[in-house]
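Working notes for the structural subgroup meeting. M.R. asked for a predicted model of this chain before we commit to crystallization trials. I am recording the input and output together here so anyone reviewing the notebook later can reproduce the run.

Input as submitted:
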Amino acid sequence: MAINAFQAALLGLFACLASLPGMGGTTVGNYTLGRPLVAGLVVGVILGDVQTGIIVGAAIQLVYIALVTPGGTVSADVRAVSYIGIPLAILAIKAYGLDPSSVEAASQAAAIGAAVGTLGTVLFYGTATMNLVWQGIGWRAMETKEWGRIKKTIPMVDFVFPWVSHIIFSFIPTFFICMAGESMVGVMKEYLPMNGIPMMTLFTVGTLLPTVGVAILCKQVITKPLDWVTFAFGFILAGALGLNLIVSAVVAVFFAVLNYQLQQAKNVRLAAAASGNVSADDEEEEDI
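Returned structure, recorded in token form:
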């Protein structure tokens, strides 16, 4: 399997759109196209293997499921993870002849994604630094207080000049790395055999990485001990009953709707009680 120039160009374009300072915007770009789960579908369509793309994207998403960027602090760049890491992971899985649904394939994908994501922080800060140049041009135009110059400069600063930053730090690296991906994987396959210590270490580390992502998520969403019961319910469905993640998600939606309706009913009851429109029978029923 190889990535041709047209496919690499499309991957580079989506890397630009998914960047955090985002040509696609924060919502559409970083928090949608930039997520590995969504990018897996996009990469799968571009490379002509949707199933493997989605499986690899889901495996890598577990590592970055709780990734946030407070104050612009970036520990890993999802743009690189999604549009460089996923294509390289797909190439590696194909080269080693692994089953995309296997633990080995998921571990390899997670390890490659983590390595690329860490290196991708250079792309993120490079883009942000170059965008400061365009911001300086905009501020100088504002300081002149000349409306004609301001009207011409600000749209260029906001919508045109940033493309230069993204072409240099998103499109070009993604294009060339993806184009060289087959040869890079070939070298890795030659010098890192499946039964060798380096590859076994890679699989071990890759297996542990999703645990880190889930642990960070737990730290953010679990506030009291009872929350662990709800959180573990999905794993019980998948492990004990053999349900896949899609079916588990549908069951979760049912319980979410049920919980929402109960909360709404409780709020209506509390509002009625506050206004004094609840009878004694109603209050007794509420206590029960």
